[in-house]
Amino acid sequence: MQLNVLKAKIHRATVTHAELHYEGSCAIDGRLLDISGIREYEQVHIYNVNNGHRFITYAIRGEEGSGVISVNGAAAHRAQPGDLLIICAYGSCDEAEAAKFKPTLVYVDRHNQLTHTNHSMPAQAA
């Protein structure tokens, strides 16, 4: 059986631009793409913490170190500058691979600069 698992996550990134008339996609600081392992043109699921909207698009490379998180095209209706996003990429693997796999979790500050990474999330307390 193939399972879809979380491959990578950029947690609580701040939207810097929303460009309705751009071709589409989400531009992400290239450094964050490299650190997270999200590839340019890879499908990403985006969860807007501010308004609850969830949408799917693809990543494009933004300037390294710029902190850019630009939601473009139709997706610009789902986010505005200042919103916090969780950007996730998923991958498929078999059950044996899934048992050993650990995602790359990338955490940023309010300027989308790296604060730390991890490969597991703490257990949620009751």
Automatic annotation (TrEMBL):
<keyword id="KW-0456">Lyase</keyword>
<comment type="similarity">
    <text>Belongs to the PanD family.</text>
</comment>
<comment type="pathway">
    <text>Cofactor biosynthesis; (R)-pantothenate biosynthesis; beta-alanine from L-aspartate: step 1/1.</text>
</comment>
<comment type="function">
    <text>Catalyzes the pyruvoyl-dependent decarboxylation of aspartate to produce beta-alanine.</text>
</comment>
<keyword id="KW-0566">Pantothenate biosynthesis</keyword>
<feature type="binding site">
    <location>
        <position position="57"/>
    </location>
    <ligand>
        <name>substrate</name>
    </ligand>
</feature>
<dbReference type="GO" id="GO:0004068">
    <property type="term" value="F:aspartate 1-decarboxylase activity"/>
</dbReference>
<keyword id="KW-0704">Schiff base</keyword>
<feature type="active site" description="Schiff-base intermediate with substrate; via pyruvic acid">
    <location>
        <position position="25"/>
    </location>
</feature>
<keyword id="KW-0670">Pyruvate</keyword>
<feature type="modified residue" description="Pyruvic acid (Ser)">
    <location>
        <position position="25"/>
    </location>
</feature>
<dbReference type="InterPro" id="IPR003190">
    <property type="entry name" value="Asp_decarbox"/>
</dbReference>
<feature type="binding site">
    <location>
        <begin position="73"/>
        <end position="75"/>
    </location>
    <ligand>
        <name>substrate</name>
    </ligand>
</feature>
<keyword id="KW-0865">Zymogen</keyword>
<keyword id="KW-0963">Cytoplasm</keyword>
<protein>
    <recommendedName>
        <fullName>Aspartate 1-decarboxylase</fullName>
        <ecNumber>4.1.1.11</ecNumber>
    </recommendedName>
</protein>
<keyword id="KW-0210">Decarboxylase</keyword>
<keyword id="KW-0068">Autocatalytic cleavage</keyword>
<dbReference type="Pfam" id="PF02261">
    <property type="entry name" value="Asp_decarbox"/>
</dbReference>
<feature type="active site" description="Proton donor">
    <location>
        <position position="58"/>
    </location>
</feature>
<dbReference type="InterPro" id="IPR009010">
    <property type="entry name" value="Asp_de-COase-like_dom_sf"/>
</dbReference>
<comment type="subunit">
    <text>Heterooctamer of four alpha and four beta subunits.</text>
</comment>
